[in-house]
Specification:
By secondary structure, the chain is of the alpha/beta class. The chain is 43% helix and 15% strand. The protein contains ten helices and nine strands. The chain has helices at 26-35, 50-60, 75-83, 95-104, 115-123, 134-137, 139-147, 166-170, 186-191, 194-213, and strands at 14-18, 40-44, 65-69, 87-89, 108-109, 111-112, 128-131, 154-157, 178-180. The strands form two sheets. A six-stranded parallel beta sheet has the order 5-4-3-2-1-9. Helix 1 runs parallel beside helix 10 (194-213) and helix 2 runs parallel beside helix 3 (75-83). The longest helix has 20 residues, at 194-213. The relative contact order is 0.17.
């Protein structure tokens, strides 16, 4: 399930997808997630605060594997590396973006929404991909269908994934992890309710452990 440059090792199979509006929120959020057993986070570039937030976590919480999400332009690759991101993710992919990622050596998860896109990413030597938007594409059933003709690929479904349905995704042999925004609700982040984020992270961590134990 490795990309051409292997992703950093992390234990969590749930990747929080986070929009940070204030860089000061990033470090306590990372610490709250770690306390709940989640050792990876995707801070997206959807906000102007994204790069500063990545830099803050990379500097202050080295045990957190912080990645840059919503990397959609080749010019952003150098920026996220300079900020300290250990890997990157995108909702899609272009030849220019993938070439920049490969040239820079950034561990990367390109986004795909069809078998053709997945095959194009595989031709560029990626084997772990983000399936986005997963629920709108067909959810568990579409990933199950892709598993037949594309058995060598692994996916991280994102978009419409929740605590209620993540087990169905993670039970598929071609799903390496899931991404979701429910672990860091905007209201809790705004209020600085880090205890709630720790509870949500622990709930997800425990659910994954129960799924693995039942196999």
């Amino acid at each position: 399930m490795n990309s051409p440059v292997s992703l950093p090792l992390f234990q969590s199979r749930v990747v929080p997808v986070i929009v940070v509006t204030d860089p000061a929120q990033a470090v306590p959020m990372a610490e709250a997630l770690l306390a709940g057993g989640v050792d990876v986070m995707e801070i997206t570039l959807r906000s102007a605060a994204g790069l500063a937030a990545i830099e803050a976590v990379a500097r202050a919480v080295p045990e957190m594997q912080v990645g840059a999400g919503t990397v959609t332009r080749a010019s952003e690759v150098a920026q996220v590396l300079a900020a300290g991101a250990r890997f990157g993710l995108s909702p899609g992919s272009t030849p220019e973006l993938l070439a920049a990622v490969l040239a820079a050596g950034l561990p990367f998860v390109p986004g795909v929404a069809s078998p053709s896109e997945a095959m194009a990413a595989r031709a560029a030597r990626f084997t772990l991909m983000k399936c986005f938007p997963a629920a709108q594409l067909g959810g568990v059933e579409v990933l199950k269908a892709w598993g037949g003709p594309l058995p060598d690929l692994r996916f991280c479904p994102t978009g419409g994934v929740s605590l209620a349905n993540m087990g169905s995704f993670l039970a598929l042999p071609n799903v390496a992890m899931v991404g979701g925004s429910w672990l860091t609700p905007a209201a809790a982040v705004k209020a600085g309710d880090w205890a709630q984020i720790t509870r949500l992270a622990r709930e997800a961590t425990d659910a994954v452990a129960a799924l693995q134990a039942s196999r």
